[in-house]
Amino acid sequence: MEIIKVNIRKPLYGNFCYINAKIVNSAIRKGALLEITVPNGTAQVNPQKWKDTGKVMSKVFKFVDNPMILYGNHVPVPLPLSNIQGKIEENTNLNQLTLF
Known about the structure:
The chain is α+β, with helices and mostly antiparallel strands. It has one domain. The protein has helices at 21-30, 47-53, 81-97; strands at 3-7, 16-20, 33-38, 41-45, 55-59, 68-74. The strands form 2 sheets. Strands 1-3-4 form a 3-stranded mixed beta sheet. A 3-stranded antiparallel beta sheet has the order 2-6-5. A hairpin with a 2-residue loop joins strand 3 and strand 4. It is elongated.
């Protein structure tokens, strides 16, 4: 299966970002996945799902008569395993300190 890579340097907030409709529609036609990279990590997303569940925005950049259509959604970046293990250890330490 083909993968189309998209690099987002500054997401809007958290992992939410907008992707050009031309890239999303091209991935749907090719039957490819979108590999979206944000500063927090990387995730592979089905472009049809991105289009169906995302927000649609048309924004004018350079040409007033031709606005760019963008699809926005959250990038599902998984948490690193080391962060999860660290939080579990913190919780067990707190539970051991507060014995009544």
